[in-house]
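Supplementary Data S3. Sequence and structure tokens for construct A.
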Amino acid sequence: MTLFHISHTDLDGYGCQLLTKELFSQNYCLNANYGIEVKQSIIHFLDIIKSEEIKEEILFLITDVNLTTAEAKYLDHEIKKLNEDGYKIKIQLLDHHSTGQSCANKYDWYFLDTSRCATKITFDYLVKEYNAFQEEFYSWLEPLVNAINAIDIWIEEESKNFEFGKVLLSMISNVREINNVLFADKNRDFRIYLLKEAAHYLALDDGNIKLDNEIHKLKKEFLKLDENDDTIDNLSAKYLVNSITTIKDKLTITYQDKKGVLTYTLGSISIPANAFLKANKDFDFFIDISKRGNASFRADGNLDVGVLAQKLANGGGHPNASGCKFEDFKEIINYEDVKKYMQAKLDNLK
């Protein structure tokens, strides 16, 4: 069975994906906040299913996200069409937000329980439906699930779980070392790694305090590319440059005879862009664009990006560092659509 799993962008959402990653070896994961991200995530998964013609059994799972009436209707209709064409897709939504009650009343695949967080609902569902998790998993998974449940639905009387959950909440919300759009899979793996490591502290006296003291060290262990230690900022920069280099062909854009890299929502690009350009001499410029269309340009002497920014959107700056704002840019979750947008802009300058 192949899993397609959309979950929320908080502790509870990632807790659900920790569980499914332990169970399903074939899995596609996305994280979506409310609004446009939910519908775009659904469409993106449906496109993958159609393009790859996945005819084995599929579980289309949504956790910790309630759908609007229109989103639920769209998903139900599209899955029914695919199943009529020979696909074997089961939809299952597991949520605890009361705002989804009208959808839960209408669709049998929409499970709603406001008494438990989504991670706990997902844990119980996987145990019941798939006989998931052997005894060795229960020793660390179930206590972790209970801590997430205590903080997510605010059960202060479970003081140990509640206090531990507070640390988990802060730890997951403060993962900013790996971009969650450009490197969504690595960002998700980072958060899940931290959750699994945190589970070791649950049985300790003052485990919440001990974990709080160790989070910085745990982050550095994940980010290290070799045995050499460094500051977390330097480790993050090296990890980022390595990640960009690994997929540089996918990120490549061109302007006349110049070759560049385009990133999306990276932010604060001065250090990584400079490091990347110095390590990859065949690239001439580096552009990062935000969800609101603000763009930052960097170069290393081979292209005047101040002039380029001015031509593209009346921006400007220095030959090696400039910026602009694209007023017609609309928020996108799929990087390939951002790349098409930017390459079209550059091609129109020729």
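Construct B, processed identically:
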Amino acid sequence: MSAIAAAKKRQRSSGERVLIGAALVTAALVLVVPLALIFAFAFREGWGAYLANVLEPNTLHAVWLTMLTALVVVPINMGFGIAVAWLVTRHRFVGRSLLLTIVELPFSVSPIVAGVTYLFLYGGQGLLGPTLIAAGFPIMFTVFAIFLVSLFVTAPYVARELIPLMQQQGTADEEAALSLGANGRQMFWFVTLPNIRWALLYGAILCNARVMGEFGAVSVVSGAIRGQTNTLPLQISLLFNDFNVTGAFAAATLLAMLAVLTIVLKALLEWGGGTAH
């Protein structure tokens, strides 16, 4: 019996090694090699050319606008996600299923379609556009249009992370806090929020990554005006179309580094939270 168990253990170990190896090879081909190629093409003309392309004013403005969009959109969608998750998991009401469907809608709508919809709504020939333009508040082809479509395409991320967790946790802790005399604000800050903080963080990370990398919807509503409404993905596309391949890959390294920085920040926050306990 021991020989049979040992043989099964060896077979299991061999299978695990094969799966781990396959996962590492796949990750290298899909993630590491493309990332390495981006940096290789960006630096192929040397550090001087790389820095010149990175410090080009339109590229710097695209970086700033991308980060500004994330700073505006992510906190709003965090608040929206918390509110929706609270409403769905703590209350039963008519239209609850419809609300969940509406929250999921951005996942089923192409970003380009979303951008065109906003164009038909707020554009110069759209439903509300002429009124807004006459009032001196044009929306399309401005930074506000980028904010709007980015809010739409990233709306479900935080809510989708919070709803399953809050359903699983139930309401026992919150009811206990209320029974001990806590008011609604105290209950949220000292009971609900600590219980959902990691799911909230993960949803915010996903939302941030999508905001920084969004191309389709933003390309429709921004007008891709150099130095004004170009986010980093749009700037990369324009540089590539201008046959400035080195500049396009240099800008792409910035987007890649922003993504890596986001992941590292998430890991550090999780590590800090883990050691705090």
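The two ends are 44 Å apart (CA to CA). The mean pLDDT is 86.
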